[in-house]
Amino acid sequence: MWKKTLTTAAIGYMVVGLTSAHAMQLNVSTTQTADDPLIAGFELFKQNVEDRTNGDIQVRIFPSSQLGDTQDVMEQAMAGANTAALTDAAYLADYVPEIGVLNSPYVFDGYEEAARFVETDLFNEWEKAIEEQAGIVVLSFNWYQGARHIFSKEEIHEPSDLEGMRVRTPQAPIWTESMAALGATPTPLAWGEVYSAMQTDVIDGAGAQIMGGYGTRFHEVSPYISLTRHIELITALVVGRDWFYSLPEEYQIALKEEARNGGRHASEVLLQRIEEVKSAIPEETGTQLIEVDEEVFKQSVSDYGYYEKMELQEAYDAVQEALSSSQ
């Protein structure tokens, strides 16, 4: 009840900002911490948007889920609030199911493929469908957060090692089924609850990117990180349709262009920092990074029948065809 009351109050406060005759505020929300590379992209986005709108749009950045979890912020945006959420395909799949394939296991072979796909005609069709079905405008879908691995309390070398292990995932079915396909027992939890849940043995592990896990100090409670690379996580900066189209057209263009520039910059910063963080983690806590045979995990996904079960086989094939055509 308290959480719902807080969310409603936040919406009311944010919508008030829309009535200003002059500067409007856009609140950008992310679950990532203030020192995550994504914040560098948000800072560039803020600077450029404010410059291009002569200060008419003021951007404020809220890291560490300060405005609520991703679903809360997306609901605020859909209700008309002046909020932007950094979200992933699993959340958007509630409205356009086929886009959920982007958060499925082993779709992309690295960042370059993921970045190339979101420039294809197929992705543009999905983007338009999201706006029509959900009332959400995708400013850009090029915010790369890295390959997803498994932080754990026990060593994981192959799918059989995950049997019976409770591994945290986000709530969306795409996430939970992806983890089940790898061999674990998916345990949905909010990102901000993972550290304490690991610390108190509520869960045995968590799926996370290296940078995201490092920023929230997961390695302090995880003796092992298995480098499964099971998802190449590329994410979107989205706003509500009603708020977006209340802006002058030139401001709409500026938001989209600068979101793309910000996402590209954030991705470049992340790629530069990942290797140094991989070296820092063992030095800081003794956490062991385990290289695994990805083919064994891919076979586990196939044996599980993930794509058939999630009704995403057609979408997976379409993505591969689009990638092949875009080379």
From TrEMBL:
Reading the lineage from the top rank, the first entry is: Bacteria
Extract the CDD domains matched here: PBP2_TRAP_TM0322_like
Query: Keyword annotations for this protein?
Result: Signal
- Protein's UniProt keywords contain Metal-binding: no
**What InterPro entries does UniProt report for this protein, alphabetically?**
DctP_fam, TRAP_DctP_sf
**Lineage, opening ranks:** Bacteria, Pseudomonadati, Pseudomonadota, Gammaproteobacteria, Oceanospirillales
- Give the protein name, as stated in the record: Sialic acid-binding periplasmic protein SiaP
- Could you state one GO biological process linked to this protein? transmembrane transport
Q: Where is the signal peptide?
A: 1-23
The reply on keyword Ion transport is no
